[in-house]
Predict the structure of Phosphoribosylformylglycinamidine synthase.
Amino acid sequence: MTGSLKENKEQGKLRTMPQRVKSMVITGNGTNCEMEMAHACRLAGSDEVDIVHISDLISGEKRLDDYHFLNLPGGFVDGDDLGSAKANANRLLHVRIRGTEERLYDSLRRFIADGKLILGVCNGFQLMVKLGLLPGFDGDYATQTVTLTYNDSGKFEDRWVYLKPDPSSPCVFTREMEGIYLPVRHGEGKLVPRDEGILKRLHDQRQVVLQYSDSSFREAVMAYPQNPNGSTNAIAGLCNETGRLFGLMPHPEAYLHATNHPRWTREKLPEEGQGLQIFRNAVNFLRREL
Ligand SMILES: NC(=O)CC[C@H](N)C(=O)O
């Protein structure tokens, strides 16, 4: 990380070379969107992208410290037993890295303290919430204050949704983005805060990054099917206070190219899918800031 900075300082100038951005995509135990996440990171310009099995983090073979951008993909980790991502959250919280006293969670805390970026999609968002990484009030990441639970419809929802971003949110991933159209595919996407105070704080601190909306992207919508799960205040995505941790139920890695769009043969669409901008914002931010 400091290599290029040091080299450039030695040449008597501040960094002129762009920082090399290394991305990790965690997989294993039922994750199934890791290839698409890795593809999105590569298209966004990440210099290195590794798909890493969680067992290789536990064994110490791979280290979070060696990366800048952590991707937590969608899927069915541990078969959704005990509630989506709950068992995996406990794994991260309590399992120690082999031969050390450090838990995976400790390395995650260091990753966050270093100002790096984490993106959780669907099952990855569920993991962040159950770990307390989101909304992560006051950096108290071990306390869970919101959950993602069963859709009001009582069934798995697989549809495209309209999303309204909050332009005043500190989220680095959605900068310059207006209305976004992306697919959801989940059984447990309804966001429920612990109490009214938590909900108020989420809105006051502009941590509600995305809301399910009408097709003009103007109004947040509580009604089904635009709001596919009955999520409180139509919340589809949250960031932490710094905007560097972001989780969302819809899948940005599933709309990288026009041909991913359900009506691509009938509508005139830009060649690039809207989801890619989320990854590009992350990579560009890391190049600038780290
Ligand atoms: N696509 C996903 O990541 C799904 C997450 C989780 N298995 C659910 O159904 O809610």
